[in-house]
Amino acid sequence: MASTDTKPVKIIFDTDIGNDCDDVMALAVIHALQNRGACELLAVTLTNPDPFAGRFVDALNTFYGRPNIPIGVNPASPVVEKISRYLKAAANYPHDFDPSGAVPAVTLLRKTLAASADGEVVIVQVGFFTNLAALLDSPADAISLLTGRELVQRKVRELSLMAGQFSPMRGNNYYLEYNVQHDIAAAQKVAAEWPTPIVWSGAEIGDAIRFPARVIDRDFGYASRHPVQETYQLYRPTPHERPCFDLTSVLQAVWPERNYFELSVPGRVEVLQDSFTKFTPAKDREPGRDRYLLVNREQALRVRELFAAFVAEPPMAK
Description:
single chain; 318 residues; alpha/beta; Inosine-uridine Nucleoside N-ribohydrolase, Chain A; 11 strands; globular
């Protein structure tokens, strides 16, 4: 599990930003936590091939005062939303990202892991499994003599995933979740072969924690134009309260010891051919690589208010 000491948690954020607005809010939460010294964002890798995805991430990081965070792209990622509802809003904010010269996502993952200390990285994946499956398959190269799987085993402490479903949601016990559906083969590979502990945040967790519309309407007045507020309203305007799917995986990765969530018993997740995530508890004393998040009503209300504060937090003063 992620560290409970005072050192910042080193994060790689893997996202399909552009397909939903919760990825944007999750990145805002990372910046708020980094303001507190709780984490350090090492890199962002994309599983949305839209050229504006990298531009938007760079614009958001620049807005929060961290313009030099490297961004990796994967043009072979699944195309889900042919035209994003908000990515072109990047043009409204300063950035200098050039997708034509961007580093491939797997290359950036390998470079970032190779440069890290053993066991210090937590990968937060809130999009498709495309990049991490490709990382596992990557061979030794000039970056590292280790294969991708060996790099992960040595450098990654934990994988925090927003994917799947593990308890009934809206009365549906057999829910096929978005992040798994759109690259089932990659999800199956990661679920079968990933060599470190995994914590899964199922769709039911984000669905239980809705972002307050009042915050979007009222709490961004410190900026004449704010990328989070603009993104949210372009994606689906208030009074809609968006589920906080991706934000939960960030919070669990950085502050696992604060009991914002409970964890299931250890076990193993298998991704079936139709994309369903099947969890099997470990037997007796068998080690279980996987756990999934659980949240009760009191925790959900507490986390909702925490997300509201973090997402609306102004950038750090320079």
